[in-house]
Each structure stands twice: as structure tokens, then as C-alpha cells.
């Protein structure tokens, strides 16, 4: 769990999924490094949301960007649904994968979905490769035939049930996920 902490006097409020927490958000952004991944986050009230995450290995970097920023999952109120777009980039020659994401909170469960429905767009490539990518659309469209789904089972009490962030950090969460082929 990415825990950047809340301001000492901030009272966390559940997000409704349609505009964030009640009241104005705290301006600003933060960067956190967790297990080799850099998270660029923005404040939404007392909560932090992931705008971008990246990992660098030598001269290579993979960047995942979220629009709008990906919400702090434990801040979502029961019944909230949040959706947006993502973009994955690496070396320019590898191109870009685009798609959509969605999170729904139902009781003590969080349902996540990532759909690379924007497909893959190749970057600069040698002339023969460019011809192949244009003629055979399957190279660009194959990501659209998959969806990733995940479910997080929250502990009893949940984020909106009076359990503090410190208590939630000590609880265990059940998580299941996988990729599924949805098209040809």
C-alpha cells in the first residue's frame, strides 16, 4: 500500500467518485519511491491520488500515466465508481499502449478493471517494420482483446467504517486478479 500519510490535522473523508472529497483539495503534488517505483501523486483533500508511476532500469524507463489521477482506493465511499484513461510509454521505439481504467466500491469490495482499448501505437521503426505495422493491424489491436480485473476484499470495518489508516495498514486484504481474453 502506498501510504504517504495525511496532514496531522486533516480528517479523511470518503470520496464520492464524482468530484472527490467534499470541499477544496489541497494544492500540490508529491513524489514517493516505493520498492524501485516512483509515484507522482496529487492531493485530493486529505488523500493522495496517483497521477503517474514509473520505474527505471539503467537507461530504460516505463511510465504509466493516469487521467484523472488514480484514486486512493481506501478513500472511496460505498457505491462510488471512478473511471479514467491510462497511457503506458517506454522507449520511443516501443510505442504507446493506451486504454481505460475503472474502480467500483461495493460494500467491502473494490473492483478494478484495466482495458487497453486504445491499443498499441508503434513508435519510430525501420521502414519495413512500419509497413508491416500498417498492413497487419493485429499488431496494433491485440491489446484491445484483453481485460485485467482485480478484486480487493477490505477488512471488516473498511475505510469508511471508522477504521483508522494505521489500523487498516495492519489488516490483511484479500486480493485476486487476472487477465482475461475478451475478443479475437
Description:
With 184 residues, the protein is mainly β. The protein has a domain of 113 residues. It is built from three helices and nine strands; from the N terminus they run E-E-E-E-E-E-E-H-H-E-H-E. It has a nine-stranded antiparallel β-sheet. A hairpin with a 2-residue loop joins strand 1 and strand 2. The protein is globular, with a radius of gyration of 19 Å.
Uncertain runs: 1-26
How far apart are the first and last residues' alpha carbons, in Å? 35 Å
The number of helical segments is 3
Average pLDDT across residues? 78
- The strand count comes to 9
User: SSE order in H/E notation?
Assistant: EEEEEEEHHEHE
Largest sheet: 9 strands, antiparallel
Give the class from helix and strand content and strand pairing. Answer: mainly beta
**Portion in beta strands:** over 45%
Shape: globular
Helix fraction? 10-25%
Rg for CA atoms: 19 Å
Secondary structure layout plus pairing:
Blueprint: E1 29-34, E2 37-44, E3 47-57, E4 60-70, E5 81-89, E6 96-106, E7 109-121, H1 127-135, H2 138-141, E8 146-153, H3 165-170, E9 174-181
Antiparallel strand pairs: 1-2, 2-3, 3-4, 4-5, 5-6, 6-7, 7-8, 8-9
Short description:
The chain has 184 residues and is mostly beta strands. The protein has helices at residues 127-135, 138-141, 165-170; strands at 29-34, 37-44, 47-57, 60-70, 81-89, 96-106, 109-121, 146-153, 174-181.
